[in-house]
Amino acid sequence: MASAGLQLLAFVLALSGTSGILTATLLPSWKVRVDAGSSIITAIVQLQGLWMDCTWYSTGMFSCTLQYSVLSLPTHVQAARATMVLACVLSAVGICTSTVGMKCTRLGGDRETKSHACFAGGVCFVAAGISGLIPTVWYTKEIIANFLDLTVPESNKHEPGGAVYIGFISALLLFISGMIFCTSRIKNSEALLYPSKRQHVSTTQLEGDSAHNLKDYV
Q1: Helices 162-193 and 111-148: angle between axes, nearest 10 degrees
Q2: What domains does the chain contain, in order, with CATH numbers?
Q3: Tens digits of per-residue pLDDT, 39-50?
C-alpha cells in the first residue's frame, strides 16, 4: 500500500475539498453584479446563489431572499443544486471510507480490507470532484454567454462570483485526492501479484538450502 504520508496528504486535500464544496454550495455569491448608482451612497451589490438572492447596500444593510420555487429556476441552476448536493454527499462518504482504509489508522481489519476501503474512498472522491466540476463550469459558461449577449440589457448582466471559484478549486482537490487513493490501491494489488525479485531469490535460495541439508542428512 502507498506510504502513510502520501495517504495523509490525500486525506488533507479531501478534507479541504469537502469543506470548500460545502461552502460553495451554501454561499449566495455564484453571480455578482455591482451597481454603482448615481453616487457611492446608492451603490449596491447584487448576489445570486443556488438557494438565495442577496443584496448588499453601501449603507451597510444586507438582505436575502430564499428561492422557494424550483420550477421557476433556470435549468443550469437546478442542475447545479443537484450535482453540488451530490458532491457533498459523495465527499462525506469518501471521508468516512478512506479513514478506514488509510494505513495510519487501526480501523478496517486486515491489509486487504483496508486496501479495498481505500479504493472505495478514492472512487467517491473522484465522483465528487466530477460532480463539483460540472456545475461550476456550466454555471460559468451561462454567465459568460449572458454577459456577451448584446440583446441582454446591462442591468441583467452578471459576473462569476467567489462561490464558483471556490467550488471549482475544491472539486479539483477532491479529484486529485481520489486519484491518489485509487492509485495506492492499484500499486498495492501489483505488489501482491508480482513480488519483488529480491524476495523471490531469497525464497528460492531458502528452498535450495533446505533440500541440500535434507540430502546430507540422508
Answers
A1: 150
A2: 4-27+71-212 (1.20.140.150)
A3: 555 568 889 999
